[in-house]
Amino acid sequence: MELGVNCRGRMNEFSKRFADLLKAARKNSGLSQDQVAERAGITRVSVANYESGQHGISLEHAVHLASILGFSLDGLRDG
């Protein structure tokens, strides 16, 4: 299941909030996109796409990235 992009490829509100939170958490942690990608077992391009909202993200990857960077997904659903 992919979260965040509707059938026309437009970023929805969850995707925008997740992208903003992911980027802020990564920067606050002092990690580069490459470092996050390596820890998550994904590519740097994937991290960049998630941060920009270019692509939806699976729930599994969202939870994994949140765990790596120490943030919660709890508030994203409700805004």
Q: Can you tell me about this structure?
A:
- This protein is mainly α and 79 residues long.
- It contains 4 helices and 2 strands, in the order βαααβα.
- The protein has helices spanning 13-29, 33-40, 44-52, 59-69; strands spanning 2-3, 57-58.
- The protein has a two-stranded antiparallel ribbon.
- The two termini are 20 Å apart.
Task: Identify the quaternary structure here.
Answer: single chain
* Total beta strands: 2
Q: What fraction of residues sit in β-strands?
A: 5-15%
Q: Mind telling me the C-alpha Rg?
A: 11 Å
Estimate the mean pLDDT confidence: 85
Could you give the distance between the termini? 20 Å
Helix run count: 4
Low-confidence stretches: none
Biggest sheet, spatial arrangement of strands: 1-2
The rough form would be described as globular
Helix content: 55-70%
Q: Which structural class should the secondary elements be placed in?
A: mainly alpha
- Helices and strands, in N-to-C order? EHHHEH
Largest sheet: 2 strands, antiparallel
Gist?
The protein is 57% helix and 5% strand. The chain is mainly α and 79 residues long.
Topology:
Layout: E1 2-3, H1 13-29, H2 33-40, H3 44-52, E2 57-58, H4 59-69
Antiparallel strand pairs: 1-2
Helix pairs in contact: 1-4, 2-3
Which key features would you list for this structure?
79 residues, mainly alpha, 4 helices, single chain
